[in-house]
Amino acid sequence: MVGPRRPQFVLFGSSIVQFSFAEQGWGAILADIYARKADIFLRGYGGWNSRQAVQVLDEVFPKDDAIQPSLVIVYFGGNDSVRPRPDGLSSHVPLSEYVENMRKISIHLKSLSEKTRIIFLTAPPVNEAQLLQVLGVDGRKNELCQKYADACEKLCQEMGIKAINLCNAFKQHDNWMATCFTDGMHLSPIGSKIVANEILNVLKEADWKPSLSWEDMPMEFA
Question: For the SGNH hydrolase-type esterase domain, which residue ranges apply (predicted)?
Fold first, then answer.
């Protein structure tokens, strides 16, 4: 650990998180904005679903650590919402189990510290035609993405944590289907900018003490 110690922001999720530090990715955007204000840690695992995430909570977020994150941004849902296959070889997680897994993640994160803040990102929509053309994938459907996204948002309301419904956020932008993805599901710079802006808006509007909005946080060695 190097000093001085800054607030820690952890990004935890599947490939949408793993790839977020790529050029113009939403994680990279946040790291740039929070330079000299917070340290952003990436815990992204491509291909994972919420079932796998629950299994590693104690390793990724140990409760006995002296220093706990100030903010955890969680993304799972896209892989969970994939349609099941007859051979069982898919990342599909039934909706009811997905909700309970996200509940377990929320409970665990809440137990870390009274000052650990949480934001859940829901599954974004997809470009079904682009997915089929580029990756040959036809198991991801917008109807299911929306269903899982809405269920996650409802859980967050119940648990009293912040949620960003990416299905709804993307669909507010003109031509989102053609501009937000590199392959139909992973995010382009435009898609990443939408995610980053949504996160920044939540951080700005949240009534958290201390504030985690970049404008309110002190700059190191200013």
Answer: 11-193
> What is d(CA 145, CA 58) in angstroms, rounded to the nearest whole number?
28
Q: Which strands make up the sheet holding 162-164, listed edge to edge?
A: 39-44, 8-13, 71-75, 117-121, 162-164
Annotated active-site residue in 14, 15, 20, 81: 14
Give the CATH number of domain 8-205; options: 3.40.50.1380, 3.40.50.1110, 3.40.50.800, 3.40.640.10.
Answer: 3.40.50.1110
pTM assigned to the model: 0.97
Rg for the chain (alpha carbons), in Å? 17
Of 20, 92, 186, 192, the catalytic one is 186
Residue 14 a catalytic site member? yes
Categorize the per-residue pLDDT at 137 as very low, low, confident or very high, splitting at 50, 70 and 90: confident
Residues in the chain: 222
Q: How far apart are CA 80 and CA 13, in angstroms?
A: 12
